[in-house]
Hints:
The complex is a heterodimer. By secondary structure, chain A is mostly helical. Helices cover 67% and strands 0% of the residues of chain A. Chain A has one domain: Up-down Bundle (Cytochrome C Oxidase, Chain A). Chain B has a single domain (45-224), classed as Cytochrome c oxidase, subunit III, four-helix bundle (Four Helix Bundle (Hemerythrin (Met), subunit A), Up-down Bundle). The A-B interface holds A 106-108, 110-112, 114, 172, 176-177, 179-180, 183-185, 210-215, 217-219, 222, 225, 229-233, 238-241, 244, 247-248, 516, 521 and B 17-19, 21, 25, 28-30, 32-33, 36-37, 39-41, 43-48, 50-51, 54-55, 58-59, 136-138, 152, 155-156, 158-159, 162-163, 165-166.
Amino acid sequence: MATAVQIVERENYLxxxxxxxxxxxxxxxxxxxxxxxxxITAMFWLGGFxxxxxRLELLTPAxxxxxxxxxxxxxxxxxxxxxxxxxxxxxPAVLGxxxxxxxxxxKDLAFPRxxxxxxYLYMAGAITALTAMVTGGVDTGWxxxxxxxxxxxxTHVIGAAIGIFIAGFSSILTGLNFIVTIxxxxxxxxxWRRLPLFCWxxxxxxxxxxxxxxxxxxxxxxxxLERAFNIGxxxxxxxxxxxxxxxxxxxxxHPAVYIMILPGMGVISEIVCCFSRxxxxxxxxxxxxxxxxxxLGFLVWxxxxxxxxISVYAALVFxxxxxxxxxxxxxxxxxxxxxxxxxxxxxxxxxxxxxxxxGLFTVGGLTGIFLSSLGLDxxxxxxxxxxxxxxxxxxxxxxxxxxxxxxxxxxxxTGKMYPEAWAKLSALLVFVGFNTTFFPLFILGYMGxxxxxxxxxxxxxxxxxxxxxxxxxxxxxxxxxxIYFVWSLRYGADAGPNPWNATGxxxxxxxxxxxxxxxxxxxxxxxxxDYEHQPQEEITVGH
Amino acid sequence: MATSDMGDIQVAERALQHHFADxxxxxxxxxxxxxxxxxxxxMFFGGLFCAYLVYRASYYHAFVEGSxxxxxxxxxxxxxxxxxxxxxxxxxxxxxQMGKRKLMVVLLLITIIFGFGFLGIKAVEYHEHxxxxxxxxxxxxxxxxxxxxxxTDAQHTEIYFSLYWAMTGLHALHMVIGIGLVAxxxxxxxxxxxxxxxxxxxxxxxLYWHFVDLVWIYLFPMLYLISKKH
Lengths: 543, 230
């Protein structure tokens, strides 16, 4: 009798009930995470398609593949989709949604129905924005600078703005849910100093989502009103100030880059500790660096406007404050490397991606210092140098971290292992492809090649061809995981509850976790990343 | 007495969602969530307040000219109406906390009436501005009363009116949502959803109502009471 019971598959969040309704009306944070995973993956491929079109156009100096108008629409839609519909929800809404309640030992997020609402808002926003794109597109750039966006652009600015407006509320609700969950839903003994660093960094990102996103919402609403009724708030002909738009826009959109990178940093902290078998070096510093980045992130927005006509004194202050962001960022990088020092490192796929993150984020961060220095910024402003810089942080940093996290927690999410050899190959391809794509852009930008043009002088062709070739390698690197993740759902080895022999409450429940996460509420009596006291087994799967 | 108390506790137990350990955790969580939401609301209105500050500093005379067109009597009346509605809302929350169901329903109904009163008066004001072409856009028309700043002021006054419509419009939208929420409380209250052990929806809607009230407390002086002197 007892053996018969054991043969029956353990109930988990995936098999507890079936049918489309049980997914579309679920309030389980794990299922909502999966819904987000599917949605943002679709958006990632769409944004990636536009990126590929951009790179193909830039293969030759002449603007021959698409017209300049179409090119404007391509980079605008690439930016809007990747920023608002992929990067911002990527780690928080997928991994954060899945893991934050598990990591703090809760049965769900504080507001499960609000969580589901956030997914529907995301979908509504995405569909609105996509409708605007399908019916003619937008050509303002993802930044919607006025007065071009409000007066002169003949494209579907209002539709795109409303789509982002709606998706913004999805982001606000996710952030609100995280903050309240981390404050109020922690299991007994899970003190702030025992909180996994992934939760700390998602908490910091959530603070930005809650404080920043409403401002972009009202700003885009004003843009839409301006276009519809010509109310004049950003229209210089009526005495309105286009610079005010830039201030309001960057007040959110600069901190938004920290919404994108902070949760990624949390992923890296988890993975570096696990695959070095060590406690995080300077745990408190890594945790507080997240908060410091969130706070400083709100004080640097005008470094996007150095050449837009702000006063020299304001530019000086914003330049200095931008330098300061380097300090908590460097604290993190140094602490990760110090964690690895004398650790017993194993080179599984998540760790390979984490190595990639640390290196590429460092390049992206350091070139950020170049851009926040006033003199140099005048030279490289609006060139490919800027493109290279933020792609090193966003793609080299955040997408790497997202891939690292997906591989690391895939066994937890699905209960299946991905094929390690293929995964290592994909990590290598992504790293090589990424650098081949974006490093040439630093040189192009430094030589003065401006962004946002579909044609360029023939002298620049070699570097552009290199970049396009790299983009093809990168694309293969992203297609591979797509295939083997789906493959693993059916053919992957069973993961067991803790394939990485990792610490953290999420590894103490079965994979996939049961609907209520834990059979009984866990009581925490140990530090985070207590690897020194974890049995030193070899990592059993995936060699 | 003892039986009704037992009934209250049963209502409370039914209201306890599965992922909370006990009612206290649920109450604290929902209240904290509401405060966080109000924080996002502050930032939401904050963008408009920021724009107001910038343009009022740039075009002070135009803003004074624009504010002359405001009906201070109606504005002041509306301020009083909203403050009274906040009082009845606060008393309603107290009544819910004490378990006085009928009193709560009556107080919330009065709150709704005040809310409609505010919107009615606001509609009268909006109508006045509309017929006077004080709505931004192609039909906007403004005669400056000050010969010292004729043409530019008329143009910049349009920005004043843009902000006036955007800020009070957004506020009015929040009032409409608030009235809907209080109406929902009245229906749920009549069905016996709230007891002294479980009344956090009442408390949270109350917080929202006071917040919307508070926004108006700022909007009124900023839009209506700009200096009369030049």
